[in-house]
Write a structure and sequence with these properties.
Layout (H helix, E strand, L loop, with lengths): L3 H27 L7 H21 L6 H19 L5 H29 L5 H30 L18 H5 L6
Helix pairs in contact: 1-3, 1-4, 1-5, 2-4, 3-4
Length: 181
């Protein structure tokens, strides 16, 4: 079975990726940028991820896969975090593009470290558990993002049209506390 580190790296990688996918429209609207930019920005992320995979595949990179995986995970997290501070499309796009370049390194090196750790007859089961960690990370990010958006109630939530009355309701109303008053 995969070591706990590989499972947590899978979950962490998917938390970052799903947070970018799920929160980006709300972030753009919060920054007074058209929500329609979410599609092109995520497409750019995907294109740069493909480019990053090719670059990683062409090179001989020094260091152990475990170390490289940590470095790529930190670089991806730093890139995604940088996207949060900008109020314009171009810097957000650049941060997502840089994150896209590093994301394949996280995935490939994590798989290589798992392959190195286990005998071949355990690879299939280990990959299964590792990709289950992906699902856990994606689900946690989705749940956490939705709770944070309700609790923090950012101005002009992208999902506000789906709330009763076509507006962003307060956390109190969502919990039914307003009816008690």
């Amino acid at each position: 079975m995969p070591d706990g580190q590989s499972i947590w790296q899978s979950a962490a990688a998917m938390v970052m990726l799903s947070s970018a996918e799920l929160v980006l429209p709300a972030l753009l609207e919060f920054r007074s940028i058209g929500v329609g930019w979410a599609g092109p920005l995520l497409t750019g992320f995907a294109v740069f991820s493909a480019i990053g995979a090719v670059i990683y595949g062409l090179g001989k990179w020094p260091g152990k896969p475990e170390t490289k995986s940590h470095v790529f995970l930190l670089l991806t997290a730093a890139s995604f975090s940088t996207a949060l501070i900008w109020n314009e499309v171009a810097p957000i796009a650049a941060a997502l593009a840089v994150g896209g370049l590093f994301q394949p390194g996280v995935l490939v090196t994590r798989n290589l470290s798992l392959r190195k750790l286990l005998p071949p007859h355990l690879h299939a089961a280990a990959y299964f558990v590792m990709y289950a960690g992906h699902g856990v990370g994606y689900g946690l990010a989705a749940s956490t993002s939705s709770v944070l958006m309700i609790v923090t109630n950012p101005r002009g939530r992208a999902c506000s049209r789906y709330w009763p009355g076509g507006r962003a309701d307060s956390p109190e109303r969502l919990r039914g506390e307003e009816a008690d008053k």
